[in-house]
Specification:
heterodimer; A: mainly alpha; elongated; B: alpha/beta; Rossmann fold; 6-stranded mixed sheet; 15 strands; transmembrane (chain A); membrane (chain A); ABC transporter permease (chain A); transmembrane helix (chain A); ABC_transporter-like_ATP-bd (chain B)
């Protein structure tokens, strides 16, 4: 049988809207997360700081807490300190692992040969990273509160039950800390996309992390994205301190937003105009 | 019936940095054809296919698919195209089913398509195993399943038989023929092996150093092959024979007793044998040798590179 080719073959198909394309990209990217190190890292990162500090307070809490002192404030601030140190490293690894799923499979050429715009593909991965980052941080705060209540039950001599957990403060700190990680997400996302290997973006991220921690006293440290979570913690008093109020958004958090916006827009502009494979 | 090419490039050029890769390529893939895109490694086949999918931006010229300019309607046009470019892009940590499912979701297709294409490429039984345990041939078939997923009008396959065993290659050929003959699909497949393409293609394009050395139907390529046929004459002294007859001046002395003469016709062959015998030269044997299609392909690519 000879194939026949009708003029209908030349009709241009309709293009789905950008939000439909984004929804489809997100559905595909969510599926690709199954059994990935990125997903395990997200869950483990929420648990680790809480578990460490739970053990410290369970076994040595009586040495850390003076009688009559708000144990919740001490417990929450110590847990958050661990988290603030580890958080930039977590974001670096998370971003590289999520982008690495595509890099390892040489999946970009496949994605961009599909009927979907480059912007939905770019945004979808970014939203997945932002979602996992949020999940890890919310999980951390939830577990921190749950572990605090467990401590109060198991170790009543620590007198945690006599104080209210600082839920409001933790909620605000969570929001600001999330904001303070956005610059790292933006920079690492762009690095991960344009460096197909895993090592270089992670090495650059670790260098930034060390620089952020080392230069904490520098007056311009706010411009280093990797210092963001620690700076947010340092500008948050767990106990009332005369003359110190928690800002709604601190200057270094605005810089993070600037890093995030600039990196992701530039990254997309390069993706839009350069050859892909 | 519309006879406009389904894939058409006009004066297409591309360069990687300072290195030119394609020079004014004018590809024309007829609708409903299986177009074998042939060329040695590094000739520009994969680059051309990537340009056809919008993965690369042309340095000059245009790409038209289904009569529309790709640069203006990339997303719309790609919804009718399935492609497999070099090694298939697969997620090792996912199963075969999940790999297809990810692309199905991205294309917004009906859920039933996933199982359908896995069955089409013979991977239903292995569908729920992780891809990291697949053989090279299974990965290639899974890549083909991804390309077939949207039931595309145009299938672009870059070296699709890579990693397939002989049975897999035969199955692929049968599938491609079926897609064209029963469903009217247009298939553009690249290869560096003419033997692989001639068994399935209706049309052929030969590229060498970024330029088309030949483009036409397989029958036209075969006709060109016939014009390069030669008579092989075994005699006592080839050099003496060549000096004796005017029509043998263009002959080549292949060995002391062997002459090779361009074939013209059966009548010319008979007249030549008669003239040699009349001139007192023995004719031990006289037969016609036709170059294989592979020889013709090599000749085309060598001519283009010279």
């Amino acid at each position: 049988m000879n194939p026949t080719v009708s003029t209908a073959n030349l009709t241009l198909p309709a293009v789905p809207g950008p939000f439909v394309q984004l929804g489809r990209s997100l559905a595909a990217d969510a599926l690709k997360l199954r059994r990935t190190a990125a997903l395990w890292l997200t869950l483990a990162s929420g648990v680790l700081p809480v578990l460490l500090n739970f053990c410290i307070f369970y076994f040595k809490g009586h040495l850390l807490l003076k009688p009559g002192v708000d144990g919740w404030a001490k417990y929450a601030s110590m847990s958050w300190q661990t988290a603030a140190v580890l958080l930039p490293l977590f974001v670096v690894l998370l971003t590289s692992l999520v982008v690495g799923v595509e890099n390892k499979a040489e999946g970009w050429k496949h994605l961009f040969a599909l009927p979907v715009g480059r912007l939905p593909v770019w945004l979808s991965k970014l939203l997945i990273i932002l979602g996992l980052n949020a999940l890890a941080q919310v999980l951390f705060v939830g577990l921190l509160l749950a572990a605090g209540h467990l401590l109060a039950t198991l170790r009543p001599e620590l007198h945690l039950q006599q104080f209210a957990p600082p839920v409001h403060l933790l909620g605000r700190l969570l929001g600001r800390t999330y904001l303070a990680t956005l610059g790292i997400v933006g920079v690492q996302y762009v690095l991960g996309k344009w460096q197909s290997g895993f090592v270089l973006p992670v090495a650059a991220g670790m260098a930034g992390w060390v620089a952020g921690l080392t230069l904490l006293r520098w007056e311009h440290v706010g411009w280093i994205p990797y210092a963001g979570p620690m700076l947010t913690l340092l500008t948050t008093p767990f106990k009332p301190v005369p003359g110190m109020a928690m800002p709604t958004v601190a200057p270094h958090e605005w810089y993070q937003l600037l890093w995030f916006g600039t990196a992701t827009v530039l990254g997309y502009a390069v993706l839009r105009w350069r050859n892909l494979a | 019936m519309n006879t406009a090419p389904l894939v058409e490039t006009t004066d297409l050029s591309f360069q990687f940095g300072e290195r030119p890769v394609l020079h004014g390529l004018g590809l024309a893939v007829p609708a409903g054809s299986i177009y074998g895109f042939l060329g040695p490694n590094g000739a520009g086949k994969s680059t051309t296919l990537r340009l056809l999918l919008g993965l690369l931006r042309p340095g000059g010229g245009t790409v038209r698919l289904f009569g529309h300019e790709l640069a203006r309607h990339r997303v719309a046009l790609l919804s009718r195209v399935g492609a497999l470019i070099e090694n298939p892009s697969l997620y090792d940590h996912l199963t075969g089913h999940e790999n297809v499912e990810a692309t199905r979701r991205l294309r917004g297709l009906a859920p039933a398509r996933t199982a359908a294409v896995l069955a089409q490429v013979g991977l239903s039984a292995a569908a729920h195993r992780p891809v990291k345990g697949y053989s090279l041939g299974m990965k290639q078939r899974l890549g083909l399943a991804l390309a077939l997923l949207p039931d595309p009008d145009l299938l672009i396959l870059d070296e699709p038989t890579n990693g397939l065993d002989p049975a897999g290659i035969s199955d692929l050929r049968a599938l491609l023929r079926q897609l064209r003959e029963e469903h009217g699909k247009t298939i553009l497949l690249s290869s560096h092996l003419i033997g692989e393409v001639e068994k399935v293609a209706t049309h052929v394009g030969v590229i060498q150093q970024g330029r088309l050395a030949f483009q036409g139907s397989l029958a036209e390529l075969q006709a060109r092959q016939q014009t390069r046929a030669e008579l092989v004459l075994e005699t006592a002294c080839a050099a003496t024979c060549r000096g004796l007859l005017a029509e043998l001046r263009t002959a080549t002395v292949a060995a002391p007793g062997t002459l090779r003469v361009p074939f013209q016709s059966r009548e010319h062959t008979a007249a030549l044998a008669q003239a040699l015998v009349a001139a007192g030269q023995p004719v031990f044997s006289l037969h016609c040798e036709q170059p294989t299609l592979e020889d013709t392909f090599l000749h085309l690519t060598e001519t283009a590179s010279n």
